Amino acid sequence: MKRILVVHFSQTGQLARIVRRLVSPLAGAPGEIELVEEILRPRTPYPFPWPLLRFFDTMPESVRLDPPAIERIRADGKFDLVVLAYQVWFLSPSGPITAFLKSDEGKRLLNGRPVVTVIACRNMWLTAQETVKRLIHEAGGELRDNVVFTDNAPTMATLITTPRWLLTGKRDAFLGLPAAGIAEADIAGADRFGHALVRALRDGRETSGRPMLGHLGAARVDPRLIFSERAGTRAFGVWSRIIRLGGKPGSLARLPLVMLFCVYLVAMILAVVPVSLLLQRLLRPLLARRLESQKTYFEAPSGP
């Protein structure tokens, strides 16, 4: 009997659907696999849809890895594998996942365990995964595989559809733009990773030190977004420090700084992002080797 722990927090519900579809083959192997689900619960719940300023006020703590308080983690005992599923907030892991990774209980559960990360996000996840990799390593765990689900719509379209979904709850297609979020076909097909995990567990490959989900297209990197994500990470780092000068989340002194950040972000999306994408397209022949090396690195350990 193999014990598998599944840890996740899903604000919109999309990640929860992906996780349950992905682990359904494991749940369907009674007598072989015991599946334990740990849903992380912030003590102060996050709203959905987000109020505009509350959404942006979450950025500094997400980026600075200052986690929210979460309810006590109920899972106990030792597990043969941990599946850690998370959303990306402002190019960082979501607050509840950071709280789990930095908690004594989370470190105890991860220590000495192989870990499979599962990400659902708009399209930029590289910086967040580097952070999660580091926190898993600090907890004594071993990242074995990474599975990524992203919105397949064009980047400029998602810069409209994703905020609309988060701030209004509406994710349907409108004004010629596609629906927001992960495609239903991709969610429905998530169980192929679960079937691969079942086969790996039957063969005892979770102890081998090698990926269990190789050659399945588990993590695909769009090289066009690498430099844009790095620029965004630097900007969020600067703004997180500025906004925190105004005090704790929700404080009145912090509100003008949050509003200024909103204006900056909209201006950057309208002016800087299109220019950045155009420059990268023009310079792609000169950057091809470097981008390919970066692509290979970020797609590890599972590979494209």
Description:
- This protein has 304 residues and is of the alpha/beta class.
- The protein has one domain: 3-Layer(aba) Sandwich (Rossmann fold), CATH 3.40.50.360.
- It is built from eleven helices and six strands.
- It has helices spanning 14-27, 52-57, 59-63, 95-102, 104-110, 126-138, 155-168, 184-188, 191-202, 226-244, 255-299; strands at residues 2-8, 33-39, 81-89, 92-93, 114-121, 142-150.
- Strands 1, 2, 3, 4, 5 and 6 form a six-stranded mixed β-sheet that branches.
- Helix 1 packs parallel to helix 9 (191-202), helix 4 (95-102) packs across helix 5 (104-110) and helix 10 (226-244) packs antiparallel against helix 11.
- The radius of gyration is 19 Å and the shape is globular.
